Amino acid sequence: MSSLNRLQYFNCVVETGSISEASRIFDVQPSSISRQLAVLEKELGVRLLNKTTRNTGLTEAGQKYYEFSQRIVSEFDEAKRAVNDLQETPKGKLQVNMTVGFGESIILPLMAKFMALYPNIDIKLELSERVVDLVDENVDVAIRSGRLADSNMIAKHLAYNNFMLCASPAYLTNNGTPQIPEELNEHRCIRYSYPRWQDWYLMAEQRTKLNINNTLSVNSVNGQKQLLLTGAGLALMPFWAVKKELAEGTLVHVMPKVVLSPYEELSSTYAIYLKRDMVSVKTRVFLDFLVENITGLEI
To answer: What's residue 159's pLDDT?
Structure first.
């Protein structure tokens, strides 16, 4: 009898409150369960269970041991499932919600490659700025920027946002190039109107909210970029959204030595999914694919 089997017996007795019920579940004699529990207690040198004629309860040591035993058995089961998953074909419906800017700039161009690798996955993509409820809306993966607030979620890092101040060459020719943050209140500044991302901060040793007066706001990153390209003003843009335009010279990085952000903290973009004992094969391969293929997004 392996130590893992003893843990499985122990967990089952704790969860059912009965040695006889555990014996029924494992299809072994109650005496066999009792012997293995006795061996476990002897190995540990401590009593784990208080047994009466009616039920079985945990001692203080048993309660502490059960917390670890649960995790050990759960991780062992997860390891078996992970190996079995390698033999399975990822399939089924995968529902992904993502922000419009990151989705259009980064995710959509990768989808042809993903579909070629996993033709049996039926993908439904939703691009929106709203925050979705993964449980209520049956969303497998949500791609969002910011910090993870819900402890029931897991966040897989995809990219640092690395915000930079950008403008078109034409705008700078016509209006001049600001040299210090304090000069921004003399320029047309294009804000992202999503809640909590509208203000601009100087990310120095002491973070300072900048005074920006002459502004235009729009509720999408791509909307900001189109306004920039037509010379409408300056905007704080994540590097992943303007990488191509900066390389082509259709946009210019203004004040490159100054770190600015539309949020009080430096932020990243994450793939968020539910904390479950087992993540589906279709979700796992999608997450792994994103991490492997989203590259070159750092300044």
So the answer is: 87
Question: 171 with 231: CB under 8 angstroms?
Answer: yes
Instruction: Give residue 292's pLDDT.
Output: 92
The pLDDT of residue 86: 58
Residues of the chain with pLDDT under 70: 1, 52-54, 84-87, 147-152, 276-278, 298-299
* Per-residue pLDDT, 94: 95
Q: How many domains does the chain have?
A: 3
Q: Which domain holds residue 107?
A: 92-161+267-293
pLDDT at 211: 87
Q: Return d(Cα 163, Cα 69) in angstroms, integer.
A: 45
Q: Are 206 and 179 in contact (CB under 8 A)?
A: no
DSSP 8-state code for residue 110 = G
Residue 88: DSSP 8-state: S
pLDDT confidence of residue 220:
86
Q: Is 298 within the bounds of a domain?
A: no
Cα–Cα distance, 271 to 281 (Å, whole number):
16
The answer on 155 and 168 residing in a single domain is no
Q: Is residue 299 part of a domain?
A: no
**Which candidate, 49, 46, 54, places its Cα nearest to that of 20?**
54
DSSP-assigned letters across all residues of 226-278: HHHHTT--EEEEEHHHHHHHHHHTSSEEESTTS-EESSSS--EEEEEEE--SS
Position 139, amino acid: V
Q: Does residue 58 lie within any of the structural domains? A: yes
